[in-house]
Amino acid sequence: MTLFDKGSSMADRVTDRVTDVASLGAVSSPFWLDTFMQISAFFGALLPIVGTIWIVYQLIEHVIKNREDGNREGRAELKQELSDELNKDDHDGV
After folding, report:
1. Which of 8, 20, 24, 80 could potentially form a cystine with 12 if both were Cys, beta carbons 3.0 to 4.6 Å apart?
2. C-alpha of 19 from chain center
3. Each residue of 13-27: pLDDT tens digit?
4. What is the DSSP letter of 6?
């Protein structure tokens, strides 16, 4: 059965194309397999390093964000305390 048979269904044509591509890949693998293995080994060694850098970056970002949020909360509490003290002094002085 070929791609141009009028009696073939769409599923048969797709199956033929897929098996043609798989066969072509298998036949041509000696030309690209070594390169693929080298690239795979390179990225296999690089991935743990990049993953570690990403985790450290996220940790630093989290610490900085929490420190800034804590400073904001501390300033808000200080403002509230000062405001309460000023209001208390105003009421005591009247």
Report:
1. 8
2. 34
3. 888 899 999 999 999
4. T
Residue 50 tokens, joined:
């990049």
Give per-residue pLDDT as tens, 54-88. Answer: 999 999 998 888 877 766 666 777 777 777 777 77
pTM for this entry: 0.47
DSSP 8-class letter at 2: -
Amino acid, single-letter form, for residue 33: L
CA 16 to each of CA 11, 13, 25, 29: distance values in angstroms, whole numbers, following the listed order = 9, 5, 14, 20
Helix (H) or strand (E) holding 89: helix 10-93
CA end-to-end distance (rounded Å), the chain: 103
User: Residues for the chain: how many in total?
Assistant: 94
